[in-house]
């Protein structure tokens, strides 16, 4: 109900409505059973109360992300006793060059998707390939995960992929309504209590690997407690900066220094004291045209720390948000302040455009159209603000264009699973694709998860018209890679017919700022296109899955790689007018040392420790049981694992011979991919085992940053014997 109201009414109106409703509902609670008061939901609209299941967080269960809803739970640190705690740690560190925010106007994006914790709450992923995702990370500096719970902890999938792209991630601490006023009264009772709660928030961010907090106090505060509120903010900033260099505390323009809930919409003497104590302020989104410039004048040399809010739903926002969001962005850019984009999921939530219901396959059609319109909407941001993140900046570089969801999972061109999936942690570095909706006569460039994949579930599809003597180029990445005298190796995979060729065009800048382009391609198109680049021929290897892997090496000592583009062309003397279709499966760049096999991948299984915990066998159907087990592993003599991704497999053992498998011994039965872990642990929740299965062998395959994998037959493995396990009928 709250989310529905927020879509149509201003916040000021909602405060009055909600407080009246809350007072009445307290009186009704003693007269009606709780089940009658719980909200109902359907497949298309998941209420927040149902998004986070009610369960005992200490007991083993499928790992989830969830908020902390009570001040007492924050105080007691009970979150750290949760079974789910270790699964919620982000393992991808923030890119080193992103520790300090750039000295320019910035873009903050505030997630607000159906109350939060929807498909993204499933830490190990789920089967809804139509779940909400963001892949335009190159257009933002900060990402805030938002919900209306007291302590909103970002699911690790968002932190992992944002960090991979150089974007900081903040959680949200929010108090609202009369409940929030009571919470603030307790939290700010003394200076010591204010400091203690600040330390609890700092501890959570540091332990879970995200980068700070948005503080949003949406209720009145007793004026005598304002000094303690200031202490809370300043102490949080101090402790966070000590534990996590580069961390941020951002204040939301809500309560004033007089204790009144009175949105200012600009930087004034009533909210500037909080701004002075933290790293930035997120302005409420009902500002007027003159307010950005006035706020910049008040902020002085900190004007880039002023983030003017833009509500994409358009509720009172300058320019009305939605498809005219660029009106507000253009104004902010001209006034040299930062932007805070609230609820970009509007495109997804409102299913733009509305007339999808006639499609034969509604679910897949909605996903495809939403992806198209998300790209179109984000193109407005790019045109207005420009690209703010350039990557890669270090080697090795690898991307398989995985957007964090798909219809299948592949490994080196072999399809391992046909099941749909969603796990944003699996998102690889995203290409900076240009949106070309208006030009239908050129090659269309899309990521299409329905098509074949070389690795994971992503690709880039090039489809359209191309004459025999023409070529087509399009931007893929905007790196800033300074190269040494060590050779670099470029490899990429392609799936196409003999009439559609695909190369990689690399652009370099020399120390004297001269530009140079080199075309990496398997054939010799340079005679036709000799006006544009040098050429480096590749060696090519065809795989059993119709993918061809091309590879080339070159030395560019002292040069900087500044752009990676795709180059589409026809074979020489081609007369066919058939549609051009080519799939790009992956691209990687390594230096000579990194191109050698990663020694960490080749560590023998004896260098690892793997254990099974919380093993449980429960009844399935008449001829099967269900195995539940938590797997944990680590490298010996290392406190933290060197890897951030592991493929987890299972193999049923029906033979009575349960001896450990020899390193090079072939599996006796089918090996099934269970899932992908991003911490050195995985919970197997519902593994069906038939009555003739004597044991299950679990295998864990570490995956390096450049996608290098050890052989599965040599992977870390653990045999869990089922004989002797009692079946739990509870």
TrEMBL record:
Write the record's keywords in alphabetical order, separated by commas: Cytoplasm, Glycosidase, Hydrolase
GO BP terms: namely: N-glycan processing
**EC number(s) per entry:** 3.2.1.96
Which CDD domains does the record cross-reference, listed alphabetically? GH85_ENGase (cd06547)
Q: Name one Pfam family in it.
A: Glyco_hydro_85
Any idea where the Cytosolic endo-beta-N-acetylglucosaminidase C-terminal domain is? 604-719
Where does it localize?
Answer: Cytoplasm, Cytosol
The free-text function statement in the UniProt record for this protein reads: Endoglycosidase that releases N-glycans from glycoproteins by cleaving the beta-1,4-glycosidic bond in the N,N'-diacetylchitobiose core. Involved in the production of high-mannose type N-glycans during plant development and fruit maturation.
Concerning its family, UniProt says:
Belongs to the glycosyl hydrolase 85 family.
Return the protein name: mannosyl-glycoprotein endo-beta-N-acetylglucosaminidase
Q: From which organism does this entry originate?
A: Arabidopsis thaliana x Arabidopsis arenosa
Please spell out the taxonomic lineage of the organism that makes this protein: Eukaryota, Viridiplantae, Streptophyta, Embryophyta, Tracheophyta
